[in-house]
Amino acid sequence: MNKYRKFKKMDNKSYSDVTRFLKETTHLTAREWVTARLCADFKNLSNQSEMTWIGEKLPELVPFMDETYSRQEVSNARSSFKKKVQRSGTTFLYAYYAGLITQEEMIGMIHRIVNDIKKLMETEGSEIPQEHATEVQLLIAEVLRRINESLDEDY
């Protein structure tokens, strides 16, 4: 296997250092971030994540991970990642939907979020494909449009 280099910018960091870094912009731990990334990157021919293999190879693949994980530990971390993503999304959209933040504030937050995403992607050694970035922006715009329509219907 060629050396997996997604986290090379974290070569000299500890697990705690990485978690502190993540907590500056996300609700994720290093464990959740790493397992989600690896599950996305290592799939079998059936497009399923190789959780047992990932857990066994964790210290070889990621410089700040010192121990192996069982298949269940990988699965639990990935599940925790997905739950946090959903809760974060709910919090983000609720604030706007409920009128707790203005459209201008929402747009400002989205710009800051995009900058944070770029920082995270650069840290893990990934690039955001331009077509993917455009797709996400269009999706967010569509969600906000639907929220606005729903708000208009309520009045």
Keyword list:
0% strand, mainly alpha, 155 residues
Question: Could you provide a short overview of the structure?
Answer:
With 155 residues, the chain is mostly helical. Helices cover 68% and strands 0% of the residues.
Characterization of this structure:
The protein is an all-alpha fold and 155 residues long. The chain has one domain (8-154). Helix content is 68%, strand content 0%. It is built from six helices and no strands. It has helices at 15-23, 30-41, 51-61, 71-97, 103-123, 130-154. The longest helix has 27 residues, at 71-97. It is elongated.
Question: How many helices?
Answer: 6
The major β-sheet equals:
none
Helix/strand structural class? mainly alpha
How much of the sequence lies in strands comes to: under 5%
Number of strands: 0
Shape: elongated
Give the CA-CA distance, first to last residue.
59 Å
Task: Provide the helix percentage.
Answer: 55-70%
- Unreliable spans are none
Number of domains: 1
Average per-residue pLDDT, rounded, comes to 88
Q: How would you spell out the order of helices and strands? A: HHHHHH
Please compute the radius of gyration using only Cα atoms: 18 Å
